[in-house]
Amino acid sequence: MVHKIIIDTDPGQDDAIALLLAFASPELEVLGVTCVAGNTRLPAVVRNARIICELAGRRDVNVFVGCDRPMVRDLVTAEHVHGPTGLDGPVWDEPTMPVQDQHAVDWIVETLMGAEDRDITLCPIGPLTNIAMAMVREPRILPKIKQIVSMGGGGTEGGNITPVAEFNVYVDPHAADVVYRSGVPLVVMSLDVTHKALMPRAWIDGVEAIGGNVGEKTAAMLRFYERFDLVRYGEFGGPVHDPAVIAYLLQPELYAGKDVFVQIETGSELTMGMTVVDFWNATKQPPNCTWIQSVDSEGFFAMTLDRLGNLA
């Protein structure tokens, strides 16, 4: 079975691994890549998305420019994690593939409106601005979405940009609120699960051993990226968040979770962007997402390494 997917992204080294994993997997038909401001500002995000498409040999993939700021709040970026370019580590040539003229939100709406019901999976691995704007602009797209598999949020792990907020949700909590209220089937790869898959050094060495530009540049990205979490958490190996979204589509048996009700904090500056997870049904509300809590870490890294080898 081939999954039709749209990847909404703000690359970011971990976004780059997610894109490469998708491009390396014939079970996934990437209909397009939509860009959103998040890890860095939008022009750099668009540059980085094109760089990764070209690294994978996928100049045929259409890249769309989306929202350059959150729905309500000012933009917060994460160059302190990803470097000034958002994709530090390797030395990159400037990309040459074109960017589409159509705005990402318009393209998402148009593509979904032309689809059968429950036909396309959305894979947002950055702030949810583009997805929420599409939902607000044209509510008729909701039945067209098969599911949303998203990286964002934190429950038991707390936050990584504030004590309680994960970065993607914190950047645009109002957009996250729209998505979580939409009624679309939602699978959430939060910090609760991504912090259980820490990059082994041998795995990064294995990525480099793939050879060519893919192996060399991907390993350089990962070595740059892991330094932040090594310092912050004192762990041996940092988490690689966004590929979990693609890995779930490819091998859902690697993951386990629980259907829960989640609300997004949009009113308090102290807890802004918190994903309030009702693990024990205290609110008596019906679940609005599947909250992934565990992963076969060895299986995840083995599958990812194997797939990246397809791009060598």
Q: How is this structure best described in words?
A:
This protein has a nine-stranded mixed sheet with strand order 3-2-1-4-5-6-9-7-8, with helices on both faces. The protein has one domain: Inosine-uridine Nucleoside N-ribohydrolase, Chain A, CATH 3.90.245. Helices cover 37% and strands 18% of the residues. Helix 1 packs antiparallel against helix 10. The chain is α/β, with parallel strands linked by helices and 312 residues long.
Main sheet summary:
9 strands, mixed
Based on CA atoms alone, the radius of gyration comes out at 18 Å
Approximate helicity band: 25-40%
Uncertain segments are none
Principal-axes geometry comes out as globular
Number of helices: 12
> What is the structural class?
alpha/beta
User: What assembly state would you assign to the polypeptide chains in this entry?
Assistant: single chain
Number of separate domains: 1
Structural features:
18% strand, nine-stranded mixed β-sheet, Inosine-uridine Nucleoside N-ribohydrolase, Chain A, alpha/beta, 312 residues
What is the secondary structure topology, with strand pairs?
Elements: E1 3-9, H1 13-23, E2 28-35, H2 42-55, E3 63-65, H3 79-82, H4 104-113, E4 120-124, H5 129-137, E5 145-151, H6 167-171, H7 173-180, E6 186-189, H8 191-194, H9 201-209, H10 212-233, H11 243-250, E7 255-264, E8 275-278, E9 289-295, H12 297-308
Parallel strand pairs: 1-2, 1-4, 2-3, 4-5, 5-6, 6-9
Antiparallel strand pairs: 7-8, 7-9
What is the gist of this entry?
With 312 residues, this protein is of the alpha/beta class.
